[in-house]
Amino acid sequence: MTTLSRFFTLLALTGALTACDDGTTEMDAGNPEVDAGDTDAGPLPSTVRPTKRSDFWAVADPASGTIALFGGDDGPIVNQIPQPNFLDETWVFEPGVGWAQVEGATHPSARGRYAAAYDAANERMIVFGGRYRATGTSGNYTVFNDLWAFSFADRTWTQLHDGSGTAPPARYFAGVAVDSAGTIYVAGGATNSDALSITLADDLWSFDGTAWTEQTLTGETPQRLFIAWGYDSMRNRLLAFGGQSGDFVSASLNDLHALDLATGTWSVLDDGFTGTAPEGRFNAMLAYDSGRDRYMLFGGHGDLIMNNQVWAYDPAGAAWSLAAPGDTPTGNGLGCLGNPREIPNNFLNQDLAAPQGRQTGGWAILGGTAYALLGESDCSDHLDDTWSFDLASSTWSEVIEARTGESCDRRGDDCMCLCQ
To answer: Which of 371, 374, 370, 393 is CA-nearest to residue 383?
Structure first.
């Protein structure tokens, strides 16, 4: 690992590797209730949308043809330090219609970095755990282990378990999956409340609708944080790609693991060294394309750049392929406008037909289309855009344009630095 790569990894993991940070933000106009219009005709300057945010999950429901997201963090990044503001909102996106906020008194408390998955048997989004700290405060986080379900049919929340008694220890950045019978599984993540002292979990729990049970694990467990989690519904296995050890120094990883939920056995699907594979990254997004039997990987923070590539893993052929190349580094170093940490505009060859590179945003598949929703960019800000990715042609379309978080070139400005 080079000195430059180690520098990038440390800054990125602690929230300090971001560009154009002057403590201000671009237009962020709230959410007035007006007609979003036909989002397939985009890009649209729609104001009916979630505010910019990251550290959330997006879950697709094929039955209703919608995608739901909950909570997250829309706090500003000031002097290259995130200032969290955790949310408790629920939003639903419907292609061709737009975004709608779901109102209701019953829902999980504000949080980010929770785990979420689709429960196909009951047509609902499952949310477990996460963490919270009051806006404007510092110190330890409150870490959760409660379990919730959001019904796509009637758009209501139900608490399935309050976390008391026998239950998984509270955690954030865990993996969760739901099998065809509706059994919920939780694995991994971190249990620490101190943000700079990582304690990794190495366990597997199942919830049968009434009680939690700890399961026995075998095989090589991927001990790390910032994993891209997914679920292969055909093979009933939890997927784990990449991440970082949690020491804030080591290089990011690019191996792919699978946990057989029937047997509790971890296995390595791809070691990241043999053949073609994505370069190491953390906080990427992974979703299963059941129509083509592929694992679709998007975004994530590498040791050098915030990625916007799309990769496809074929589990039958045990091979990765690059579906959309995205931005690539030019080889130029850091430094712009007298700031040695600022990212210059010539740092990247930008693929302007693709969305801004991002991490910890939404990535969900409906039919033949994947959707990239919001997230944290490398412009010291969160994004509030919506993009679609055609899985057959591997082409991007901007559905709702960003009001914040994009590079100068993407928003049509002439800048010396990447974002200013």
So the answer is: 374
**Report field, pTM of the whole predicted structure over 0.70:** yes
Buried b (16+ CB within 10 A) or exposed e, 350-381: bbeebbbbbbbbbbbbbeebbbbbbbbbbbbb
Residues 198-239 have pLDDT tens digits of 999 999 999 999 999 999 999 989 999 999 999 999 999 999
265-270 vs 218-219, strand pairing mode: parallel
* Domain-embedded: residue 78: yes
**Does the CA dihedral 79-50-138-174 come out positive or negative?**
negative
Asked, for residue 359, whether it belongs to a domain, the answer is: yes
Rounded CA separation 217/259 (Å): 9
Flag whether 419 is in a domain: no
Cα–Cα distance list, 111 to 115, 312, 417 (Å): 11, 30, 33
- In whole angstroms, what is the distance from residue 420 CA to residue 62 CA? 40
Q: Confirm whether 416 is domain-assigned.
A: no
> Helix, strand, or coil here: 64?
coil
Alpha-carbon distances, residue 19 vs 15, 72, 176, 267 (angstroms):
11, 21, 33, 38
Range of the domain at 148: 3-411
How many Å from the N-terminal Cα to the C-terminal Cα in the chain?
Answer: 30
Q: How many structural domains compose the chain?
A: 1
Which residues have CB under 8 Å from 241's CB, separation 6+?
227, 228, 230, 254, 255, 256, 257, 278, 284, 286, 295, 297
Task: Specify whether the CB–CB gap between 130 and 71 falls below 8 A.
Answer: yes
CATH number at residue 200: 2.120.10.80
